[in-house]
Structures are given as C-alpha cells and as structure tokens.
Amino acid sequence: MYCLTHHAIELHSIDARANRVRRYVLVLTVDPTADAPYSVTSQWGRTGWFLRGERFHAHDADTALGHVKAILRRRKAHGYRVTRVDEGHPLARWLLDAGMPTERAADHQPALFPLPDDTVVQTAPMQGFLFR
Questions:
Q1: What is the pLDDT of residues 62-117, one digit of tens each?
Q2: Residue 44's domain spans which residues?
C-alpha cells in the first residue's frame, strides 16, 4: 500500500465595501505511484458558491512548493489572509517567515449589506415585499 498525502492551505479575502467575500484553497498532494508524484490543486471563488480550479503537476517537491509559494505571494498582494494550514504542511514555517497575514476563519458568511429596519408590508400575492 502506498501513502497518499494531502496538505491544504485556505485563504480568505473579505471586503464589504467592494462586495468581496472570496476563498482560495491550495492543496499539495503527494502520490508516489504517479508519473508526476507532486500535484498542486488551486480552487478559488466566492465563499458559499462553487469553486473553480486548476491542477499543476510536478516531478519534484521543489518545483511544486515553488509553484505554491508563487501563488501565495500573488494572493498576499491581492489582500488574502491565511485562515487554515494543515498540520505538518511543508510550507507552514515559510508562511510565518514570509509574513503572510493570518486571521481566524469566520463561522458564517459576513453580512455585506445592512438589513432594513423598517417594517415589511406584503403588497399583493406573488408580488414580493416592500419596505416602508
């Protein structure tokens, strides 16, 4: 039996003024039986929605880790913060040394718009609601 390992890093970018609630997940997978044993899966999108993604394959660990570092530098420049790093991730120490901003992940999606405090009036069936 071979040992398949996964190491994930999750990043978030939240800005209510720009209506931005983004999520980025990087997973480093090591599969010793594959032709290119190292793969980096990148997934991104709005929090709470489907994530888009792509996969990068490498023959050695240095190339795969270099690819992850390049993505993390780009995400840092775009305002992303690290919210989760798997225990034993090969880049855990590098994240601290590179000064990647961190934050605790929220338990729920943040409210981007204030809820109306006026009373709600139903106008007509199937016509929706109006605020006074």
A1: 999 999 999 999 999 999 999 999 999 999 999 999 999 988 766 555 555 565 55
A2: 5-131
CA distance 110 to 98: 28
> What is the spatial distance between Cα 116 and Cα 4, in angstroms, rounded to a whole number?
50
Number of domains in the chain: 1
pTM higher than 0.85: no
Hey, CA dihedral for 85, 94, 90, 77, is it positive or negative? positive
Task: Check: CB of residue 25 under 8 Å from CB of residue 42.
Answer: yes
Cβ–Cβ < 8 Å for 24, 72: no
Tokens 């480093």, residue located? 28
Identity of the highest mean pLDDT range in 7-11, 16-20, 46-50? 7-11
